[in-house]
Amino acid sequence: MKLPTLNAPLRLILLIVWGALSIILTTQSDHVPLVHFMTHTIGSTEIGATIGHAGLFAILTYAVYLMFALWLSRPLSLGLAMLVVIALGPITEWSQMGLFGRTPSLMDLLADWLGATMLGFAVSFWFMLRLQKVINMVEFSRSR
């Protein structure tokens, strides 16, 4: 069964919305209501903050991947998306230096990288499974 694909405008909207949300949540002070809500619900413990950062950056990696996949091969799109999002991690942590109620954290940076990397491995595994399915179908048709 083939999965439905998103067309270019929907991919762009997904990237813009999730990118803006990621930047707001990681670079704004705790006085912003959305940031305050998220840091006091999901990020109220160290493990919650780690899961929040990893999830946020995993979904951001997927959104960037979907955009690049419109023009580039899937493996190249995935690698480039991971590089872009991994580079965004230190930028967002560095931008927290002057914000009230926010401090840069190595743990948050590692969680950002973990999210991007986990998504990369998951999508790569999906590629491998799809390729194996095609190989099995070809071998089956040859054996008949």
Key words describing this protein structure:
144 residues; mainly alpha; 5 helices
Q: Which residue ranges are poorly predicted, with pLDDT under 50 across at least 5 consecutive positions?
A: none
Helix tally?
A: 5
Q: Cα distance, first to last residue?
A: 23 Å
User: Judging from the principal axes of the Cα atoms, what is the shape?
Assistant: elongated
Helix and strand content put the structural class at: mainly alpha
The gyration radius over C-alpha positions equals 18 Å
- Main beta-sheet annotation: none
The counted number of beta strands is 0
Oligomer category: single chain
- SSE order in H/E notation? HHHHH
Percent of residues in β-strands: under 5%
Mean pLDDT: 83
